[in-house]
Records
---
Amino acid sequence: MDQKQQDKMGKAPEILWEEIAMCQYLGDSLRQAVVEGEVALPGGLREETVILSAQAMAVVEKVTVQSGRADVDGKVIFHVLYTQGDPTRINTLEAAADFSQTIELPKARPGMNVPVSLTTEHVEASAQGGRLKLMAILKIYARLFGEEPMRMVGGLRPADGLMQKTETLQTCRTVALGQQDVLVRDECELSDVLQITDTLYATAAASVQDVMGGEERVTISGVIDLEVYHLSAMPSRPLVITRHSIPFEETLPLTGEEGDLLTADAVIRDVAVLSQEGQEEGQRTLRAEVLIGLTAQMTKRRDVCLLLDAYTTSGDLICPQMQPTRRVLAQRQVRTAESGKMTLLLDGEPPARTPLTAHLRPIVTDVTRTGGKLTVEGMMEVCFLYMTDDTAAPQSYCTEEPFRTAFACDLCQPDALTLQTTGVEVSCVTSDRVEIKYILHLSSYDVALGEEPFVTDLSHQPAPADDSGILIYFSQPGESVWDIAKRYRVSCDSLRAMNPVLDGAEATDGQRVILWRR
């Protein structure tokens, strides 16, 4: 553009730039994956094998971010209860199956942060030809965060006829990270009343209760809830469950600078249990080792004043160039729990005499947010183990039951939640009716987002000639006083002076607005 054209169009407003480093939410991906494994059974090929139950725990071991995708490597640890040969003796088998999944994230670049959560939605085990075939269906949810600096318009230097609207917006960025795997050990005495003869396996859930940081270190404390499966010599009860709470407090390095908010998370990576006879008769000691993955994150908030819109009442038109941005306002770890209860009808099954245990696996189908509460609906996979009067062999009954639970919390991103059951208690109401009580735990690393578009640049173009006279305009739904003033290139004060009824920021739908132009 030559100097004559610039003089004709007028001097462009001077842009005041802001270079801001902030955490942006760049997308997510939700998908299912099938993980399969196979392992040899220790018994003979001719021995009949009956699968009683199958459980599985999925663990993320590595996330590699590439251009346009994230490669997720992990493993699924299976625990199977079964009988082989002798239908009265319960056996257990532990096996692991590795998996690798590619998650498509179009905006991903190496070095970006991609947290991944796994949920085991279904588990199957079948015996054939002396081998055990295993299958798990996983829900994989990945989110993409970027923290590259952005150059945005903070405002314009005041000039004649210039109207601009700015707003102070909150941003957040990650300033420090810490990550470490920790082995937690514990031991306790098992009651001789349970007559435990052997310990099979254990499942665990970890929760963070407190996090404190300072001087490049963070201390995370919490509790590991352990459920241990044992063989028992009690008549009519070959399987017993013991529950234990293991406190932990671990300090790990935090690399980065000081921030405003510190959050932490703990996930179970592996569980090993063993029980041994004590010196006295009937005495038995349980030893447990739990590998937990600890992560900590320090974030820092910053309020920035940015240009939202601008126009001039004379001269050239100003055309803001907008870029949609989903900025992170805050990150927080949400954990809560509610009790639940369901009734099973053993229609057509052998009558129940003594309940042994029940494995519950929740599958979420719908989430609604109302009045500060989160209502979660879904199907609960149930595997019920029990004894009957007709035989000394344990029985297994698997089914699905609907559930609906309201949690006293609210989430900005309901898709990120995971559910887990603990404290399962089973009682037989009648021979064909079973009541199951449980505690349903909700966990989510929640992210609050702001989604206002940012002005990243300004362009100019000649303005059409204004019509003189009196104009009557009827406001459109959702239109503000600023929108009408910008449309007709008058100041908001002038528009209100001509229309005293426009005393607020918003205009009423279909409101008559009068403009007078000379």
---
Amino acid sequence: MYYFLFLKRKVVTRLNALLIKVKEVSAAVLPITLIVLILHFTLTPLNSILLIRFLLGAVFIIIGLSVFLTGVDLSISPIGNLMGSVLAKSNNYWIVAVAGLGLGFFISIAEPDLHVLAAQISNITSGFIGHWTLVIVVSVGIAVLLSLGLIRIVLNFPLYKLLTILYLLILVLALFSSPEFLAISFDASGATTGAMTVPFVMALSIGVSALKSDSKASEKDSFGLVAIASCGAIISVMIMSIFSGVNEISGSLEEEKIQAESFFQPFMEQIPLQVKDTFLALAPILILFLIFQVISFKLSRRAFLRVLIGMGYTYAGLVVFFIGVNAGFMKVGTTVGIRLAQIGNIPILAVIGFVIGCLTILAEPAVYVLTHQIETVTSGYVQRKVVLIALAAGVGVSIALSVLRVLVPEIQLWHYLLPGYVIAIGLMFFVPKLFVGIAFDSGGVASGPMTATFVLAFISGIAEGTEGADVLIDGFGVIAMVALTPLIALQVLGLIFKIKLGKGGASDADDSEPERV
């Protein structure tokens, strides 16, 4: 009888947790769905079969992401915390470095947003840049920089100094990269910091930094690892561009890939593909967990089973999510973009882009993870609603600017990125150092599932429908913009925070406990 009641409580608890995730994810997907429906009945009427596929795809995404995020809470985040604690207790730089390489590679391989981006690039380039080629190259870069970021925490090396060095390196590499690879590299950086990577990396960061005796240093070091790791994606793709010797890549979106002939067939075709690919992506993480369980974790039977059940949720959720994305959701984003471009009204397109940007960021699942973490680590002094408002403004502007870049031939991606990163790096020397880590981590998490799916497809569609625009050069780069603007928006917020407190100077002394904002 007691066992039955205990089991009943466990089931009710799991269902409540799942319902909370459904509510959060629905808030992310439904605004985009509503925008598509409004555009369908006004500016861009869609084929009925394509519209139904989009709505069914939205349902798949809501269910898939909800189950996936529940699984992440049960498995990926606890594994990250455990591994972070193990690495910190080892007090051995070599162990930290090697473990960082392995963990960074395998968690990046499993990131759904990266696979979505890689699939789009592979389709547009007709396989010239292969899906798994891009995923592996990016994952190697993430692994190297994650390892470097963990060592930074152990050595107490200032975050702003390391980020300055990394972005100067990126600036030099950009001079030798082709425009196509430049856009892809920055988009890859944003796509790697999604709903899988962010909880794991942040848990790993907190696990390592929490064992420091200095509580203020621990608080600051809880942020910034996501930003460092995402630099690895940019650097690795740029290096691939330089060594490949390819100066130009052509690509386009074929109309027959956009227009739907069948309703159920695309969903049925995706099932075996996603079942296999998702298993290949998650298997290394499961194997690592089992190895660590035997060597050091020694979890109780109940805790061990909880993680395994969470991995099952993660797997099932990813399969359903990918089916919804590939079978129905992205096609409509592309089609809407193409038809809006044919209208040719720049102000209307810019406004639509701004609204999509604001709605997308306000409910990105990974953003919820970060903003809650910010409130927790700062004991509520930096409130999540303030961070969300700053992020919404920044990302809304980034999508509007991306639309303008496609429609105005004279504007190129580096016209935004170069001054943007100069401003972001310059601000690091004047804002409280806690806000540096928060801002750069926010830049990574802002580009989540909705950006990697609908928004990227939407901008690519505008590029395809605009005469003289190139899908690879002009269509890609929007994730890079989404990742850039929060760096400036949140550091400006930190500057306001600092001015409000009447502080001066740019030293780490600025990081005394802030008042509630």
---
Amino acid sequence: MAGGKDRVYVFTGVQTGWVKKRQFADAEYENLGEGWIYLVAACRWFPDFMLDLFQSDDADYDLSFIQRIFLRINANYQYTDITACRGATKSYCRQAGGYVDGLMWPGETTAVTGPSLKQTAKIASDTHKYLENNYPGLTDLYTVESDGMDRFVVSTPYKTRLSIDNKRGATVYRASAEETAQEEKPPFDEDEFKNVIIPTVRGEYKVKGHRSPAYIYFKQQSITSAGRRQQYAYLRRRSHRWMMARGESAYIIDVPYSVMLLEQMRPVAWAENIKNELTGAQWLREMESISSGSDKNPLIRDETINEARQLAMMEEHHCCKDRDCKTKPQDVIYIVGYDVSYRDNKGNAKCAVAVLKCTKQNDYYHRDKYLKQCVWIEDWTPAETPTPIAQAQRLRRIWDRYTYEGSQTYIAIDAWQYGDGVLSALMAEPVGGARPLCCYKHLEKTELELEGAIPVIYPVRAGGNGVRDPDSEMILNAQMQFEHGNVQLLTVAMNEGVEAYKAFHRIKDDSLNYKISQPYKKTNELVSQIQNLREEPSGQGIREKRISTHIQRDSWSALKYAMRLAQKLEKANLAKKPHKSDWDDMLAKYRDGNAIGVLPAAAHGRMVVARQGGRRF
């Protein structure tokens, strides 16, 4: 440091210039006057500075860079979501920062909750002991009111209070939630957090009777390891991410185990030992801080879905309608998969459309399967007074967008219950003189067919065994197509996809970005729906079961129906008779059931005699 070991250059309201370190330490806070205001302000926004002042000579370690980040995030933002690996000292930083905030904002009260009061109180009690060793001057200012099995409370004489004893009707200034993504027993109770804890965060910090403009009100802090994407913890984190992008008072951070190793907080052997004990999905969550789908019998593996998300550009109409398209109309097939909402605007069910673009593959091993690219996804809530005719008209408009002369475009529709009425409405006389539609191969409702109707509607009859489209068979087909790389979804890099679409269509107007990005966003929702499904055995084979009933599967069903029709078209259009083998003529002589004894001499130029037995050396 400039000035040597004994001197330092200072600039304060008291003195300026080179002074001995001991002189500076003596004079630092004695006559600052209003300088105390700046010190308090600095420690409010930089609580790690306050901890540096209190740190004991016998402290176990100094604060690392990532710990300082945790402390500053919690101090400066209204909504914070810290997702970090095991051993990242999340709880330690949350509690240490809470103690500093309690001193800098006298009278502040904090409610802390977790998967269970017993677990949370134990963590808080153990953390307090660590803080007593590292920052004894800080913890001496707090009195431990309660340190029980399911209750931990500390306070100061100035009414600052940090408690783990969730009560209705209380008034606090901020809420901190521990392990919000925990699912093992006991799981984090999201309902209690939303219905009991959050309503109590309503305190208004006042100075001399006036509301303080400097205080950050209604703070909500969440710390956890990563979990499934179907949890409220992930959904809340996602909403806070959008708030953060809009410049609002929110901050999320995901910290993998590599940060702990680089900052030498943990040894490499520690991470390697944990990796040997965890599955791939568990390692992603616990150590990589990556939220994933189900790791217990997932319908489609996360790795497979990620590999499928390689389609850069969405298509809002038939590709041959683009002026620069080089695809021949006869070389492409579009299938509009449609899942009908029959709830009449009750519940969360929606009408969903997934458009598959099917093209023949030249690869030898995939020559009998189409490449199925999901180029468009859309859903909507049914009208207040839904009618089959309204749904049929909207579906017909989407089908029209993907039709082109010389090409084939089909509709795969859920034909049960409400869908049966939509199917009938689709086959009715269209407006504007367009050609009517009828069922593929005239499977159903031949009495409703109009003259000149195009057979492009495939009515999906899903269910158990005995129906045309058993659920088990459709699920197995979808799994196989994803696993074999025959399905592509829109890329997760939404901005890159939008730019690719604009570049291809020569669009320079940025105001259209929102509209163009919608299929990419809906694809993200589709992936969440797939990851929310778990495979279960049933008497009919296998079935899909939702992990969270709050997440629908409308878009997935629409995609599954489209893939079912694609399977039928592959069998009709691509399946070839096996090539005749060179051995067929030779083996045909022995197809009468006789064993092959002595082969004709003319065939080989010599007589071959079957071995009669005995030991062969």
